[in-house]
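Aim 2, interim progress. The first record below pairs a target sequence with its structure tokens.
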Amino acid sequence: MSQLVHELYAPIQSGDARPLAEEVAERLRSLVEQGVLRDGDRLPPTRDLATRLGVNRGVLLKAVRMLEREGTLRARVGSGITVVAPERAPASTWEPVFSSAIRRVSEAEASESAEPLIADFSRLAPDERYFPYERFADLLAETGRRERELWQYGDPYGLPELRREIAARLSRTGAPWTEANVLVTSGAQQGLDLLFKALVDPGDLVAVESPTYPGIVPLLRFYGARVVEMPVEGARRDLSAVAGRAVKLAYVMPERHNPTGVTMDAAERRRFLSVLGATGAVIVEDGYEPPASDLAPLSALDPARAATLGSFSKELVPGFRLGWVAADPRIVRAVALAKQATDLQTPLPIQAAVRAFLAEGGDVEVRRRRAEEVDVRRRALAAALARVLPEIRYLGGTPGESLFWLRLPAGTSGRDVARRARENGVAVSAGASFDPLGRDIAAVRLSVSRVPVDCILEGVARLARTLLKREPRAEAVAIPTI
């Protein structure tokens, strides 16, 4: 028992970039594998064990859930946590050997909490209450009955009618796209993956903004790309690291950049194209939401080099998994080959129903109602931050924008702030999620796209207690109206 007490209760000494819960899980798993913890042994109470390991109870519970899923522990209410250690197979038992690509991609840390959330500022997803599900279900049934060919294999480029609609919408922004320039994907994430498949070899230079969209980070690792950072400095990008280099692909969000919420002005767009054009890169312009400005997109300014990546996830609902790539026909052909090798096609019934929904203007009312609500929430969050956390600077939070990029004091762990805030009932996104190299930067992102107005002030107050370790001023904040 003395060995058990010594090895089990020794504090965790975190020495790498892995989530702390994984380190705790590895400690407990190792003790089981070594026979220190045996089948049927009960672990100490979670609060006691967490204290002795030097971690919070939420981290310990997350580690326990990991080990439950793999069958090493069993947790039962009233019975505590029990070790499950069946006879181990011989060391010579076959194990799959995974590719170097999949080994480079680490699983995202689960954002779980034992406590209910007061405010979830972590999600950039549309509020589904404003989508007319009944009408869309009718359209799905109607198109499915009327167009039987939708139930067969189709063109990997996508439904021609939907491609024409997407091209027409993009052309209204100045991009010279036609149906031939558009390929429909299973969400914008697949579109980005297909562009990597078509363009990027291991060791190629890929230029990304810093901070950047979290979904590109695992792709950079999976495809073995070498990252060139373009630090975001307000509405400008520091392009000094890309100048004079051969870059294969450059990923950029000129409109409502995620996570900072800042939009490039016209001069910065021209400068960006000039510098990146000299590198030879294909420029991937992510328009994850319809543009809010009247500025010409990069694809309108340089259609040969700039590819547009888009999605209906933020405009309609994420569950459709419907997006597109619009680009020079040579790039679209290469992406179509990658698409055929991936999933053959995006489901035609969903494409047809979305096309019918757009044709009758159903998306216009959805966007209007959501935009009004987001603006009310945006102003409420801006007012709450000004009153409760005046010392914290942020980017974003401009009219029509749901994102707030909070810059924390130098040396602050954004990952630790996000973890402790969640334990206090508030979810925010750690800056590390948006860093192309996975560094724990001193920032967090807040989104109001799904947070009810009456929860915003309390959410900010709890975030302040987490961040500043003091009781913030709790005076009521007036909620702006439209």
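The second target in this work package is listed in the same format:
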Amino acid sequence: MTTADTPHRGNVAEPLHDDEIHVWKLDYRRTEGRAPLIRVLARYLAIEPAAVELSEGVHGRPALAGAHGDALDFNWSHSGDHALIAVARGIAPGVDIERRRPRPKALEIAQRFFSSDEIAVLANAAPERRSGIFLDIWTAKEALLKAHGHGLSFGLDRLSVVGDDALIQLRRFDGEDIDGWQVQQLALGQAFAGALAWRGDARRIRLGVLASGV
């Protein structure tokens, strides 16, 4: 069974066990670029940030390169002034964070890009709940597609993550065995929606908050 801790003030030096995924929420400024990500990876690798080498896949997913290329895998996402970083071993995590705000065109966007059952859930939702449900669906889909490796180019309508009850659960993923996938909403407080996904067995999720400067 996958479990998720409530956010706590954490320490990047905490051991990363093979059956865990560490997820860190941190303050972020766009002008920093990848610097916060590199600092976190350096702490896990016990090396200086300048020694962290990154490569980029065909679909833009960053990965470790060089001598530490097989040490761990990671993914990250940022929205506004916050970011999420997911770190694991043996699986490729996908993570997404979005600031919660009114989305008056949520149903219109869903009708262009979402699956038919997701559109139906949004159409039947009370107007005051629609923006929240839309973001829960969006972050789950994006986390899955980032873990899949193709990102949004795969097609948002080629997977479905919600049923009639509006709860996040993977129901369809074209070309994939859905029983081999995990998707987990993250408790990020009222201001943000977030999700974590990966292909593989269930793992314990350690969710923490990092101080500025890591």
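The radius of gyration is 17 Å. This observation will shape the mutagenesis plan for the next reporting period.
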